[in-house]
Design goal:
single chain; alpha/beta; Rossmann fold; Rec A Protein, domain 2; 10-stranded mixed beta sheet; 11 helices; 23% strand
Amino acid sequence: MERNELIGRLKKRFTNLIADDGSAEGIVERAGIFFMSTGILPFDLALGGGYPRGNITHIFGPDGAGKTTSMISAVISAQQSPIVNGLTLYLANEPKVDETMFYRLGVDPEKIIFAKTRSIDNPLDGNKALNMVRDAVGQVELIVLDSVAGLSPSVMYDMNSEDYAIGKIARLLSDQLPLIANLLAATPTVFIMLNQERASFATHGAPTKPFAGYALKHWIANSIWIRRSRWVYKDGKSKGEVIGFAPKVTTQKNDYFAPRKDMEWEMLFETGVNRVQASFDCANSCGLLRQAKGYKLIIEDGEIPLDYPDGPHDKNTALDRLGAEPDLLELLERSVRQTLGPSRTL
């Protein structure tokens, strides 16, 4: 049977599953919008552009490592650079997720939908959460599940505490993730699953591993390990008042870029991700900043001073000006992306 004849037969029986010419047309069309920015420049660079659209990203780590705070940057990025509609569906099956923190750090309340348990008679169980994900695929910009460890299947709410319930979360994910991954592949929606760590009783390998790891690994495009690296002090030294921390992030799996990339940035308790500091450090490490009576950004047309003419010429002044002038910060980040290679981030 000829190729064109086979394509015709398949298209007749399986509508919209075969491209008109039998090629990977959809992938070519989506190449320019393949990634959504994480909102954190070093994170984008380590992932090869950002969170891959039409795929599942898995972020896991211990409690207090900055997973939810990193999601605030992702939600803001989805709102600022929409391909679908800029909406985010945030499934918070961990009761400690604070909606007000999102709004305080710059999330538009009109562009985010929080789903969480609000009545004892109608809890957000695992089955409802994953069904909501399936319904929202292609209808929103970003879906966040916070977290996998909190996915209690509906059957567990009817069980006694002494009943045997091991493996039910893994079975639920094994049933649902193939369907969700297949639906996602035809859309520009980003789906991020946050997860906790648990102790591993294996005699070799890492001492901890994520919940339901084997049920997840086959269907995710990225697996990202995040943990706390160091404290951030108010005076910049290793003592005094603690105002934040720096997470260390490692890409353990990446289907679209080289894995095993490590990165750090600062998270402040009051303001979240320190985007200015992270972008400044990236520009400095790739040789785009020159220090001569202050810091200057090197661009094609020359140099742009990052400090004020009448102010002190030091790093803190450069950071203050970048924070006060968003256009200058955007120029710095764009220069970094151009220097390190073509960006496919939108």
